[in-house]
Amino acid sequence: MVLDLKICPACGDRAERPRVESGLLVCAVCAHQWPFRRLPLFALTGPSGAGKSTVGPRLAERLGDLALVVEQDVLWTGALRDDVPGHPAFRSTWLRMAAMLHQNGRPVVLCGTVAPPEFERLPERVFFSDIHYLALVSEPEALRKRLLARPAWREWDEERVEEMLEFNEWLQAEAPSMDPPVELFDTTHIPVDDAVGHVEKWVRGLLSGTQRPSTAVG
């Protein structure tokens, strides 16, 4: 079993703001230090309907030797599903979960709608060497068509579709200026296999050092 990285294995204190010094976690109460795997996290983001749920399962098959591909929405429930802007409890829980999974030696590719401001400011950000962001986006009318074609239980009415179209537009406009920048990939006219290949190449390239990494925090 992997212990929650916010909990000191020596005294049991639970840190609200974890500390990392020289690659070690440090307990603010007893000063105990212990090593952990500080791996990069890959956030496959973008608006609903742009292809994350289609790409994810196929990506898991291709990256099975290298990374763990997980779906963000499985935790979108209960007390984590609130109306607070940015949903910090939900985001923090995912970062803690990904950090624990990293202790098994493989990085996580998290498929879900997220932007750097929602992860980078959280205390749990310190668990990761980098967080890389790749957003799947789409032309507005194609995105609208995909969302309205979804099953009724997913509750995509016109108002909710418009909100997602606004996010799609905002993301494309702001992605280059975010910290770190978000890479964009337009899936409007791209076959699924090509989209999966693009994301796979992105992950493998960053892990091998052939793509430029983002700046580490902490």
TrEMBL record:
It comes from the Bacteria. The keyword Kinase applies. Keywords: Kinase, Transferase. GO terms for molecular function: kinase activity. It holds the Pfam family AAA_18. InterPro entries: P-loop_NTPase (IPR027417). The keyword Transferase applies. This is Broad-specificity NMP kinase. It comes from Amycolatopsis roodepoortensis.
